[in-house]
UniProtKB/TrEMBL annotation:
<dbReference type="InterPro" id="IPR029787">
    <property type="entry name" value="Nucleotide_cyclase"/>
</dbReference>
<feature type="region of interest" description="Disordered">
    <location>
        <begin position="421"/>
        <end position="441"/>
    </location>
</feature>
<dbReference type="GO" id="GO:0052621">
    <property type="term" value="F:diguanylate cyclase activity"/>
</dbReference>
<feature type="transmembrane region" description="Helical">
    <location>
        <begin position="97"/>
        <end position="123"/>
    </location>
</feature>
<feature type="domain" description="GGDEF">
    <location>
        <begin position="288"/>
        <end position="427"/>
    </location>
</feature>
<keyword id="KW-0812">Transmembrane</keyword>
<dbReference type="Pfam" id="PF00990">
    <property type="entry name" value="GGDEF"/>
</dbReference>
<dbReference type="InterPro" id="IPR043128">
    <property type="entry name" value="Rev_trsase/Diguanyl_cyclase"/>
</dbReference>
<dbReference type="InterPro" id="IPR050469">
    <property type="entry name" value="Diguanylate_Cyclase"/>
</dbReference>
<feature type="transmembrane region" description="Helical">
    <location>
        <begin position="135"/>
        <end position="155"/>
    </location>
</feature>
<keyword id="KW-1133">Transmembrane helix</keyword>
<feature type="transmembrane region" description="Helical">
    <location>
        <begin position="208"/>
        <end position="227"/>
    </location>
</feature>
<dbReference type="InterPro" id="IPR000160">
    <property type="entry name" value="GGDEF_dom"/>
</dbReference>
<feature type="transmembrane region" description="Helical">
    <location>
        <begin position="20"/>
        <end position="43"/>
    </location>
</feature>
<protein>
    <submittedName>
        <fullName>Diguanylate cyclase</fullName>
    </submittedName>
</protein>
<keyword id="KW-0472">Membrane</keyword>
<feature type="transmembrane region" description="Helical">
    <location>
        <begin position="167"/>
        <end position="196"/>
    </location>
</feature>
Length: 441
């Protein structure tokens, strides 16, 4: 058996691990097994190399306590960000404590620190989440740490503490940090691409700014290791710096997470409602355009009635992922109703909006979604068609309300016209002089 969440035990046959695609399942198990092998070899090497010193045990205790306090202090923001995670790597700052431990401790103590951090965060931060994801994350940290430790040894930094004391040792430590980042990043991207066939390479790579957070964490890890080596009781003081860094670097992610619909990973109606007028104001200042797509899933109620609401939620999430895969970088996809989505397309012309809409329509028409039914069976939903209404600012509207109304009216026309089609709102024809005069009278 395996523990899921805080207190729920499930039989091995019901583990979510087995629902992964075969390639992803083999990949995850292989990474986990390599991590176990590295753990065994590290423990054996530690036994052959003699007992761990009191200084190393003290450093381990300080780093373990500091890491735990950090996780506890930031667990609110981390829980919200975890719930909003989709097909991009989940960025966190556990790496700073792990990399600090790499410079101060043998690998046989680094690995328990990694395990402790993930076990604690599993129970206190993430709550009821899929167990194999947390085990895999622990494994990637172990593999990355082992690779970084090998770079340190190859560069001549064999005995602990392995801190930069000259230009060469600084280069070695930086190379070890780069290796740690690259190994962990590559392993996570591989898992995302194999387990989410609909995920694009852009989604899997995530944003560059997220990786800068990891680099900042690794850099702070070097500083913490240096302070711990000379003045260990100063480390708790650095917790204020760590928490400030956590807040400031991850605040943009947190703000996005606060506006993310938990079921689909798309933007919430409130987030979208704030984004539209801001984008219109920007377009006005740049004399640019803004496209809007409103789409409603045709006969989605039948999916809920036939397969159950959990299956409907799974289908809705697949739809959201498909829509995101067809829009451009910088476009905003939101869930604005039960089965109604909206796409904001900054700078798009009418032809570009219609082209994107057609790509989405084609993809949804052929979308295949595997779902679990109420009878504990697996079924495949073939095709989730949708109707589309398109409108472009300033061609057909000058305000947010006018733009949304134009797109909604076009959507209604599409549904009345037979569904699974795209209708574009037309600009209102200008009044001619005669009509204007009649109106005045």
């Amino acid at each position: 058996m395996i523990l899921i969440g805080r207190s729920s035990w499930v039989p091995p046959r019901q583990w979510k691990l087995w629902s992964l695609p075969p390639a992803a399942l083999g990949y995850v198990i292989a990474v986990d097994l390599v991590a176990v092998l590295i753990t065994v070899l590290a423990a054996r090497s530690s036994l052959l190399g003699g007992p761990i010193s009191d200084a190393e045990w003290t450093a381990f205790a300080v780093l373990a306590v500091a890491s735990t306090l950090h996780l506890e202090s930031a667990r609110g923001i981390e829980r919200r960000r975890e719930l909003a995670a989709n097909t991009s790597p989940h960025t966190n700052l556990k790496c700073l404590w792990v990399f600090a431990s790499l410079l101060l401790l043998p690998l046989s103590l680094v690995i328990p620190l990694v395990v402790l951090a993930y076990v604690y965060s599993w129970f206190r931060v993430y709550g009821r989440k899929i167990a194999h994801r947390k085990v895999f994350s622990t494994a990637t940290y172990i593999l990355a740490s082992a690779a970084a430790a090998a770079v340190l040894r190859a560069g001549g930094l064999v005995s602990e503490p392995r801190l930069p004391t000259d230009f060469w040792s600084l280069l070695v430590v930086l190379a070890a940090g780069a290796t740690w980042w690259l190994v962990n990043y590559a392993l996570v991207i591989g898992a995302i691409l194999l387990s989410s066939p609909d995920a694009t390479a852009r989604d899997a790579l995530g944003e560059l700014s997220h990786q800068l957070v990891i680099c900042a964490g690794l850099g702070l890890g070097i500083a913490i290791a240096a302070v711990q080596s000379s003045y260990p009781w100063v480390v708790p003081v650095l917790m204020v710096t760590v928490l400030a860094l956590h807040r400031d670097l991850l605040l943009p992610q947190y703000q996005r997470a606060a506006g993310v619909d938990v079921k689909t990973g798309l933007a919430t109606p409130s987030y979208w409602a704030n984004a539209v007028p801001a984008e219109l104001a920007r377009a006005e200042s740049l004399r640019s355009s803004v496209g809007l797509l409103m789409l409603d899933l045709d006969k989605f109620k039948e999916i809920n009635d036939t397969y159950g609401h959990p299956a409907g939620d799974r289908a809705l999430k697949a739809v959201g992922e498909s829509v995101r895969a067809e829009v451009r970088q910088g476009d905003l996809v939101a869930r604005v109703g039960g089965d109604e989505l909206a796409v904001l397309l900054p700078g798009a012309s009418e032809s570009e909006v219609l082209e994107i809409a057609e790509r989405i329509r084609d993809r949804l028409s052929t979308l295949a979604v595997s779902v679990d039914t109420a009878a504990n069976r697996t079924a495949v939903i073939s095709g989730v068609p949708a109707s589309f209404g398109a409108a472009v600012y300033p061609d057909v509207a000058g305000t947010m309300d006018q733009l949304v109304l134009a797109a909604d009216n076009a959507l209604l026309t599409a549904k009345r016209g037979g569904r699974n089609q795209i209708v574009s709102a037309r600009p209102n024809p200008p009044l001619d002089r005669a009509d204007h005069q009649v109106g005045d009278h």
